[in-house]
Amino acid sequence: MLFAEIVATSAAVGSTRSRKAKIESLATLLRALAPEEIEPAVAWLAGEPRQRRIGTGWRTLTDLRVDPADAPSLTVMAVDEMIEELAGLSGAGSVLRRRELVGELFAAATAEEQSFVIRLLTGELRQGALVGIMTDAVATAAGLPIAPVRRAFMLSGALPTTAVAALRGGLDELSKFELEVGRPVQPMLASPAEGLADALAELGADISVEYKMDGARIQVHRNGDEVRIFTRTLREITPSVPELVSLVQALPCESVVLDGETLALADSGRPRPFQETMSRFGADTGELLLHPYFFDCLYLDGVDLLDEPLSARLDALERAAPDHRIPSVQRPTDEAATDYLVAALRDGHEGVMVKSLAAPYAAGRRGRTWQKVKQVHTIDLIVLGAEWGYGRRTGLLSNLHLGARDPDGGPPIMVGKTFKGLTDKLLAWQTEEFPKHESSRDAQTVYLRPEIVVEIELDGVQVSRRYPGGVALRFARVLRYRPDKDARDADTIDTVRGLLPG
Ligand SMILES: Nc1ncnc2c1ncn2[C@@H]1O[C@H](COP(=O)(O)OP(=O)(O)OP(=O)(O)O)[C@@H](O)[C@H]1O
């Protein structure tokens, strides 16, 4: 197939707001692909190259001015081979070879193809909703229900591989996907509850009420002595958390997959700020010691527990890591649950999670069987740009433009601006960091690619004629940046609209 067909389908998907129409055009294309073209094409149309990181910077791509070809001639396989070579380059001479390769690719590409390649390789195409839409399209093209496709994707974490299995082998191939120790699965997520009373009313008496600790999510895989640790976005951080690795190696089991939260504690035993925990996920190991608090067990000594009820998974957790469980109570009375929430807040935590003990582990889903009860209202938004400050903030990037995710895969939708809550440290950080994510600028504003997620505290939202989504934030202030999330984890415009009064 010609690469131009992929580019045309991507444009068609981007030009309609209808989810159904997007799925239809993707499915039509998927049906026309040769077997070896499925992996690259699915990856590209879901927003990233199948090799994920290719090490070619924004500058290399945008500085290169090569006249586009008049007519399309590149094939899917030719482009995939070039990207494969780009991804494999390292060491002496690689900068030169990289420019050469990109130059070759661009010379053979039409203007539309060049633009698509730039957006693909710089991550600009990467939007969470595209992944959801592509999952649906794979099911449609293969003539299968969505559930087995979604399950295989959650277990493999790889949509292109899932697509090949669905399109070539159908249900039989999909059913071969299993939880595999060492390969991370998408984490189960929670829905916000209106308050504790609502969560208790909805989930009934068969529940676990747990501290909602304000750290960073970790997924731990151990097979014998080998331990691997992943973040919420399935990035491996094993080398930077040696204390967690040795703790997991000492657990009384052979093989295990655990889900939990990790954080650093102050001498008083209270949690240290989230930023300090996150700093440990970077390159250096730092001084702060991280503690794990596990709340789920997905696999223990040869037994896959994903489809078991939470009650059984907690029994396994008790066997595997009895000393490292998150504080929790099972089947409390309403009064005891309320006391537990008060105690969690008093101890410096965010609130509680209320979970149905009967529910399986719904990997990658934000369901209602886990509900979070927090005291303040916060949402995660995408930073679209920042304005240069004035007065005391002259020379610093300050006022943030905030966008909510479009659940249909379009670009983020702006819902407000704020400079409240920005400390001097954050202002300095923004000024240094934002230009690395710059897509364009004018005299007043640096615009960013949709890559940075910030957690915003707000009093509510109101109807707005100024903003394209019809809603605007009220009294928004920055709580913190969320380096553990990417744009696909941000809240959607529907969530923001859901906060409208009445
Ligand atoms: N006991 C717990 N059970 C599950 N998750 C917990 C618990 N304590 C803390 N957490 C954290 O809370 C998150 C659950 O909320 P949610 O699924 O909405 O994720 P989130 O979008 O990261 O939410 P938030 O921004 O509130 O942390 C988990 O990702 C995890 O990091």
UniProtKB/TrEMBL annotation:
Cofactor(s) needed by this chain: Mg(2+)
Positions contributing to ATP binding: E210, R217, R232, E261, F295, R366, K372
Gene Ontology molecular function: ATP binding; DNA binding; DNA ligase (ATP) activity; metal ion binding
Function: DNA ligase that seals nicks in double-stranded DNA during DNA replication, DNA recombination and DNA repair.
Matching HAMAP family: DNA_ligase (MF_00407)
Family label: Belongs to the ATP-dependent DNA ligase family.
Full protein name: Probable DNA ligase
